[in-house]
Write a structure and sequence with these properties.
The complex is a heterodimer of chains A (about 230) and B (about 200). Chain A is of the alpha+beta class. Helices cover about 25% and strands about 35% of the residues of chain A. Chain B has about 200 residues and is an alpha+beta fold. Chain B has one domain: Jelly Rolls. Helix content of chain B is about 30%, strand content about 35%. Chain B has four helices and eleven strands, in the order αααβββββββββββα. In chain B, the strands form two sheets. In chain B, strands 8-5-10-3-2-1-11 form a seven-stranded antiparallel sheet, with helices on one face. The longest helix of chain B is centred in the last third of the chain and has 17 residues. Chain B is globular and about 65 Å long. The two termini of chain B are about 20 Å apart. The chains are: A alpha+beta (about 230), B alpha+beta (about 200). The interface between A and B is large, with 40 and 37 residues. Strand 7 of chain A pairs antiparallel with strand 8 of chain B.
């Protein structure tokens, strides 16, 4: 399995084709607990990988394989116990396979004109600014273990997760310098940037320490993911 | 008509009532999130009631239930109308696989995939940062049996399936599908295929 990853090169300009590849790849990886365990072991040994693992309010992200130079990065996502309805887009397109738990997944239509000059430094929810934007839910589904999908970077969606939801996630290259997050009720907006563009204090706050990494590794074992 | 003198359609109304009673009131057809939230317990309850599917099959076999044929060999089996609650309950049956180009529906729908599988692509203008001004594939999904989802009328989507699909649908009771009555000679053939699918999906109890 690791040999396959080392040879893999993904072209995200054809979303249909990359979806077919990712479907097979993520299912194979999810079914190979030894390979997943080995990838997590390598994170613990690799300073560059562990430095990319992050803690967020709604989600913890473990980067388990970095093939950025070949068009992809593989992560494990674990939901926290905080669940909020925050429509957002991403800086990259991605595919996701749900391994445990589940969530309501909603695709929204954005109503209003997005003004990308709005307070570019707003990177936290307490810095959110009035945007005048609203969302209209046009598609909703219940994702559960086994669900698989691909999302284009420009799609605005919400995932309100149950506790202990785990996803195997493969992302493509960044298509833009930032993405948006909205508070659904108020329409207030803030931005997410890539690691290179974030202030050092925010990076430091997000970065996962080893003790939390080990806690998550134990949790993945209890949830029978590895 | 059954031996009791009542049609399958007559009997379906009371059988569906306990499921439809779970609706919270008027459905929000223009909000897929709210629509799914309201429809989910109804679809789940119908799915768990084999007598509904047995009667649906009987209704197709003997001609008690409206059976419509739409494009690409899709059949619509109309189970019930509930004007008070504003809801129509239908089965959408595609006995064989096929490809459907991107399209929108005139009405919103909440659906449960009872049998089969297919790939669904939502198409549109994303709306996020650096959105293309034109519609692109936004969301490519592989739907397995058991999947529940809701679509508003404006959501463009495409689908493809190699194995066909049977879906349970809630839609506005005023909904019309672009279809024509199935020829009486075809009913038996559709009923046999439906019986096979309902049986393999363990929906007949």
């Amino acid at each position: 399995m690791l040999d396959v990853l080392d040879r893999l090169r993904l072209d995200w300009t054809d979303l249909e084709r990359v979806t077919a590849i990712n479907d097979a790849l993520l299912h194979e990886l999810a079914g190979d607990k030894r390979a997943l365990t080995r990838l997590l072991d390598r994170v613990a040994e690799d300073e560059q990988l562990i430095a990319q693992c992050e803690r967020h309010r709604l989600l913890d992200k473990l980067v388990i394989y970095d093939g950025s130079e070949r068009g992809f990065r593989i992560r494990l996502h674990l939901s926290t116990n905080d669940h909020l309805d925050r429509p957002h887009d991403h800086r990259f397109s991605f595919s996701s396979l749900i391994l445990a738990g589940g969530y309501r997944h909603v695709r929204h239509r954005l109503v209003g004109e997005l003004d990308t000059s709005l307070e570019p430094a707003a990177m936290e929810d307490h810095q959110a600014v009035v945007s005048g934007l609203k969302v209209e839910p046009q598609f909703a589904t219940e994702e559960s273990a086994g669900s698989f999908y691909t999302i284009h970077h420009s799609a605005i969606h919400t995932t309100v997760m149950a506790d202990n939801t785990v996803s195997l996630f493969i992302r493509g290259p960044a298509e833009k310098d930032r993405s948006l997050i909205l508070d659904r009720a108020s329409g207030q907006l803030w931005w997410r940037y890539g690691a290179q563009q974030e202030p050092p204090e925010r990076r430091a706050r997000k970065q996962m320490d080893r003790s939390h990494f080990e806690l998550l590794r134990h949790k993945l074992s209890v949830l029978d993911v590895i | 008509m059954s031996s009791t003198g009542t049609t399958a359609r007559d009997q379906l109304g009371p059988l569906l009532e306990p499921a439809l009673m779970r609706l919270p009131g008027a459905l929000q057809w223009d909000d897929a999130d709210e629509l799914l939230e309201s429809a989910l317990p109804v679809l789940t309850a119908i799915h768990a009631t084999p007598s509904i599917f047995r009667l649906a099959l009987e209704g197709v076999e003997v001609g008690d239930l409206p059976l419509l044929v739409a494009d690409r060999g899709v059949h619509w089996i109309h189970l019930a109308d509930d004007a008070d609650r504003g809801v129509s309950v239908d089965l959408r049956f595609a006995p064989v696989g096929g490809v459907s180009a991107p399209h929108v529906h005139v009405h919103a729908r909440a659906l449960m995939l009872l049998h089969g599988a297919y790939k669904q692509t939502l198409v549109g203008v994303g709306g996020g940062v650096a959105s293309a001004p034109h519609a692109v594939p936004l969301y490519i999904r592989h739907e397995p049996a058991g999947q529940l989802f809701a679509l508003t009328a404006g959501q463009r989507h495409a689908s493809s399936s190699t194995v066909g699909a049977l879906l349970l649908a809630l839609q506005p009771h005023t909904a019309h599908v672009l279809a024509e009555d199935c020829r009486s000679g075809e009913r038996g053939k559709v009923a046999r295929k439906l019986a096979s699918v309902l049986g393999s999906a363990a929906l007949l109890g």
